[in-house]
Design goal:
CATH architecture: 3-Layer(aba) Sandwich
Number of strands: 9
Structural class: alpha/beta
Helix content: 40-55%
Mean pLDDT: 93
Low-confidence stretches: none
Strand content: 15-25%
Distance between the termini: 23 Å
Bound molecules: guanosine-5'-monophosphate
Length: 190
């Protein structure tokens, strides 16, 4: 990529760990960061908009973009559904003078860290326990029992990868977790 000088912050977590809430707080509190809008082959949900939440690609468009080497990283996060970070998106943010923050899955987070090394800070948001995670997913009321079981088994595998991240923050108490994440980012960006 043409600009190797920019910094990036990677936020990864098992589903239900509170990552989205923490991300919103960070984007509000740290204006020097801009959210990297990923490309995906899944359909928009609810109010999601192309170019705001994701760049929505058809499967064919996504595969063409892979062939044309347009992604810094990409993953088939769920079977048949692709997600990826466009190099052009990273360059757009860096050229505006900001650092980039990513919300990507655990594998993608590790891949980006391996590519960008010291340019990147990788943060893993850890649920307090699998039992608590299950309670939150049930409480959220958005998933079927099968979907919850699937997310729990994925989370168990993902937690084993936490050791590959620069920083692990346990989200037991939201305020404490936000403070810890923001402190780690501020120290990294100076
Ligand atoms: P959702 O479909 O719920 O928006 O996202 C599903 C998963 O895909 C989440 O874990 C999210 O972090 C991950 N994801 C979103 N964008 C990317 C990306 O660009 N690359 C990778 N590897 N994962 C992504």
């Amino acid at each position: 990529m043409s600009n190797k000088t920019g910094k990036l912050v990677i936020l990864s977590a098992p589903s239900g760990s509170g990552k989205t809430t923490i991300m919103k707080r960070i984007l509000h509190d740290l204006p020097q960061l801009e959210f990297s809008i990923s490309a995906t082959s899944r359909a928009p949900r609810g109010e999601e908009k192309h170019g705001t939440d994701y760049y929505f690609f058809s499967k064919d468009e996504f595969r063409k973009a892979i062939e044309q080497d347009m992604f810094a990283e990409w993953e088939e996060v769920y079977s048949g559904t692709y997600y990826g970070t466009l190099k052009s998106e990273m360059e757009r943010i860096w050229s505006s003078g900001k650092s980039i923050i990513f919300d990507i899955d655990v594998k993608g987070g590790i891949n980006l860290k391996n590519i960008f090394g010291k340019q990147a800070l990788s943060i893993f948001i850890m649920p307090p326990s699998i039992e608590e995670l299950e309670k939150r997913l049930v409480g959220r009321g958005t998933d079927s029992a099968e979907a919850i079981a699937c997310r729990i088994s994925k989370a168990t595998v993902e937690i084993e990868d936490a050791k590959n991240f620069d920083v692990i923050v346990v989200n037991d108490n939201l305020e404490v977790a936000v403070n810890q994440v923001e402190k780690a980012i501020k120290d990294f960006l100076v």
